[in-house]
Amino acid sequence: MSKKTFYSDADIEKAKKALSGLPDLTPQRKTQQDFLSAIRDDLIALVKTKGYTLTDIKETLKTAGYEISDRALRDIMRDAEKKKVIKKNRPPKQANSSVAENQ
């Protein structure tokens, strides 16, 4: 088919009809960030409780066909540490009844 210079209303309708038949691919197309968020807890558990290094994890993912940067893995671990520190520094929650008694 040669490249057209001008398009008719029929061409537009034909293109719209072809495009309207395409399925929604959103559920199947995840970004790397979505991918890493989905496996984040597994990555943290492997490092914290099972003794794996980020290099071990990176190589395993690479063997499985997923190229993940060192930085992306380090960021996950850094964020996990930040959340851990925030939880430690947070004062304990008090029950509503004890708050009411103190007032």
Task: State mean pLDDT (0 to 100 scale).
Answer: 86
The SSE order reads HHHHH
- Give the end-to-end Cα distance, rounded to a whole number of Å: 82 Å
Number of helices: 5
| Apparent shape | elongated
Biggest sheet features: none
Question: What does the radius of gyration come to?
Answer: 26 Å
Q: What ranges have pLDDT less than 50 throughout 5 or more consecutive residues?
A: none
| Helicity, as a percent range | 55-70%
Number of DSSP-assigned strands? 0
Estimated share of beta-strand residues: under 5%
Key terms:
mainly alpha, 64% helix
Explain this structure.
There is one protein chain. With about 100 residues, this protein is mostly helical. The chain has a domain at about 30-90. It contains 5 helices and no strands. Helix 2 crosses helix 4 (about 70-90). It is elongated. The model has no long low-confidence stretch (mean pLDDT about 85).
In short:
Helices cover 64% and strands 0% of the residues. The protein has 103 residues and is mainly α.
Give me the secondary-structure topology:
Elements: H1 9-20, H2 32-48, H3 54-63, H4 70-89, H5 96-102
